Amino acid sequence: MSAAALPGCLACGATLPPAAVSAVALAPCLACGVSQRWELFPAFRAPAEAPAPAEAIAAPGEEAACAFHPGKRAVASCGRCGLFVCALCELPLGEERICPTCLESGRASGKLKDLESHRFLYDRLALMLVTYPLLFFYASILTAPIALFVSIRYWPGKTRMAIALGVALLEIAGWAVLILVVVASLSRRNK
Amino acid sequence: MKSPYRRLRGRGRRGGRFFAIAAPLSTAWIGPDHLLAVDMFGASEDYRRFYFREIQALAVKRTIRYEVWTGILAPLFLVTLWATLATTDAARISFGILAALFGILLLVHLLRGPTCRFYVVTRVGREELGAFARFRAAKRALDTLRPIVVAAQREVALAARRARAASPAAEAPAPAGESAPEAVPEVP
Q1: pLDDT tens, B126-144?
Q2: Rounded Cα–Cα distance for residues B52 and B176 (Å)
């Protein structure tokens, strides 16, 4: 059995015994004893795909040429803009094939969801600002206006945003009433 | 618009530290052609995509967090329970609340079962999915993902089978999808 066909231990990196990759039960690594289980798929033993070279056009004028490399043969068209692209410029994105220009513009505009790796959720921030400070009541005098600002600034949002907006307004109203009551009682006392 | 993603049952924190309260909370979702791992920290989310046709292996490693947390929570529960029974009045109420709290935490911890770390292995490297930090969740994830990944790599499996037929030298046990389906293994 070829050792190159077996994965390395998740803890120490030593080659695992075949029992650990049988996908039946946990088996310990012979080097460090850590129990683990592997489930291998066909891609594990598939050879690495070498990038296809962009072929030069054999018959200029009779074959479609790449829009970015006029001397190279086009092998596909961009799924977004329709431009012909060669093997170098054909960029796989999920099931789609796009050109470098569409990739860059999609990344800059944020329209390519497959490239999105980070997102800041303003509706969740607004909800946290109105709920967490309730553990320490007095903090809400600061966080409620901030939550109100976030909710309005980044509207529209999901249900969370609407709830945060409603709770922020209630908290601000509560503080306003409290302040009015305190001021009124102080005024009466001074009279 | 309906989301194309379906959530896999399981939620946890990755990072490997016992007191990883500050670690991101992880969930995993099945998309049309990829597995999406979401790490949430406060109001921000980070995404990692693993395309099914590129997943080489799924691996699970046993950890001792289960035993360690049992060793922490059980004595705490027993001590506060003893203190509840040994005291009276206000002290009994206080200790009783603490005992109930530790008891609930211990019960939930025991019911959730042994802990593990779940990895997705691709040609680029190995990534941990914190969503499956318990064996039960890891097993469910394996059972759910196995047929999806096998189906996505059907062409790769056929090519490998043809290559093996042409060259009869035996290698490692055939990966899932290249031979008859194996019985679903039981994870302790």
Answers
A1: 999 999 999 999 999 999 9
A2: 13
d(CA A9, CA B8): 26
The complex's ipTM works out to 0.76
Q: How far does the CA of residue A36 sit from the closest CA of chain B (Å)?
A: 4
List C-alpha distances in Å: A145 to A182, B2, B68: 20, 33, 44
Contacts of A121 in chain B (CB under 8 A): 43-45
Report chain B residues whose CB lies below 8 A from the CB of A46.
156, 159-160
CA nearest to B30, candidates B148, B155, B154, B156 = B148
| Residue A73 CB-half CA count within 13 A | 11
Q: Distance between alpha carbon B98 and the CA centroid of its chain, in Å?
A: 30
Residue B103 C-alpha from the chain's centroid? 24
Of B42, B57, B170, the CB nearest to A44: B57
Q: Which of B45, B53, B126 sits opposite A43 (nearest CB)?
A: B53
What's the token pair of residue B87?
């005291």
Contact between chains at A94 and B51 (C-beta distance less than 8 A) = yes
Helix (H) or strand (E) holding A118: strand A118-120
Strand partners, B59: A38, B119
What's at A21, amino acid-wise? V
Q: Which residues make beta-bridge pairs with B61?
A: A36, B117
What CA dihedral angle connects B62, B64, B67 and B70, to 10 degrees? -110
Residues 6 or more apart whose CB falls under 8 angstroms from that of A169 comprise A148
Taking the Cβ of residue B36 and every Cβ of chain A, the question of whether any pair is shorter than 8 Å is answered with: no
Residue of A nearest to B143 (CA): A39
Which tens digit of pLDDT belongs to each residue from A148-188? 999 989 887 678 888 999 999 999 999 999 999 999 998 98
Interface check B43 vs A, CB under 8 A: yes
The Cα–Cα gap between B65 and B71 comes to 10
Q: Which residues of B touch A44 (CB under 8 A)?
A: 56-57, 121, 175
- No. of H helices and E strands in chain B? 4, 7
Tens of pLDDT, residues A83-122: 888 888 888 887 788 889 988 888 888 777 777 888 898 8
Residues B131, B137: Cα–Cα separation, whole Å: 8
